[in-house]
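We emphasize that the prediction below concerns an isolated chain of 440 residues; any contacts that depend on oligomerization or on bound cofactors are therefore not represented. The input was used exactly as deposited, without trimming of termini.
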Amino acid sequence: MNDVETVGLAAELSRMSKDRGPLTVGLAGCGQMGTDLVVQMSLMPGVRLGAIVEIRPEAARAATRLSGRDDGDVVVAGDSSAVDRAIEAGKVAIVEDHRAMCGAGRIDVVIDATGNPNAGTLVALEAMRNGKHVVMLSVEADITVGRLLREEADRAGVVYTGAAGDEPAATVELVGFAQALGFEIVCAGKGKNNPLKFDATPDAYEAEARARDMNARMLVEFVDGSKTMIEMTAVANATGLVPDVPGMHGPAATREELASTLCTKADGGILSGPGRVDYSIGKGVAPGVFVVVKPRHPRALERMVDLKVGKGPCFALLRPYHLTSLEVPLSAIRAARGAGADLKPLSRPVAECGAVAKRALAPGAVLGKIGEYDYRGHALRHDDARAAGALPIGLAERARVLKPVAPGEALTYANCAPDEGLVITKMRRRQDQADARSAP
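Result of the prediction step, given as a token string:
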């Protein structure tokens, strides 16, 4: 017999569900992360899946089967009214048009798991137009037009948030914890999960991707460093921490070496100053996130040493895990219960994730997706990116090459033209124009 009492957030969710019914979530995208979310929401108290937007309906059906639901529990819906009827009948609606899901009155929160910057932006905008809170798993969209999306959410009176469990939100949570204790924030970041290979392409990773139930392109986005650059840009934009150098340092600092490596040169480390974002490829850091802190008083430093946190003068606080999709529904729950966002960009620009060529690019070529053959991410301070005319990585897909680009050369607005037909490109133009007007 299990006598463990339900406590904390789980108890609150159970009470909320009894009083008002479960929180109903709409999900956009049913790839690896989306499938995880379908299963995870079936296991959590107080939350239920109401609808899935997926251009491959069978993928959505397979995910619902995996979660333990019968095919009879799933219906195809053509419009918002049909989505609402399905939810009222206790079923999950599958739709191909995100507008049908976002317009459904029974949906409380929309989670974007499309993995595509432009698609994620479209989903977020439509959800907010219909008064829905938005959980954005597409960090690529957030670092490109997140400030405008946040403004749209504020106007609509809803919450726009990054996803709990992903490294950016987990890192920012740790930063906030350290700030609440009065520590100086020296550096924050993540351990890189995969071996770093800047020139990685999908061909070499098909077998590993199949074994891990992943898309090879998505795997390469991690291997070639793009995801790390993107995620640390999101942390920078949410906190004001900045990359110390273009591309960050990425030292091979172990868990025990973080505090003595990712600290300032004055304290024996590699950073030119405090307030930085970076990552480590050293043993024992991944899959965790960290913040390197410096106590502001000798007594606090003494206590940290006494507690065996480290030797000082800086100390590494480490969260040794992030649970990715397993934690994401918590962001939806917190948004709906008025607890705010787990991750959101500041109102000012801080950092940019540009792109550098993986191979020679010829004029006229149309660029592929992140994690494919053409380019990889490269984190920069926003001022440096603006001075260089850097093309944001969120605008690189479908961009047309204007001039020859050598391997390792940065993609810029001078050598590449983004697809002006994409909504994310149009929004980024608006964001850049607003920045130019407010610049000193």
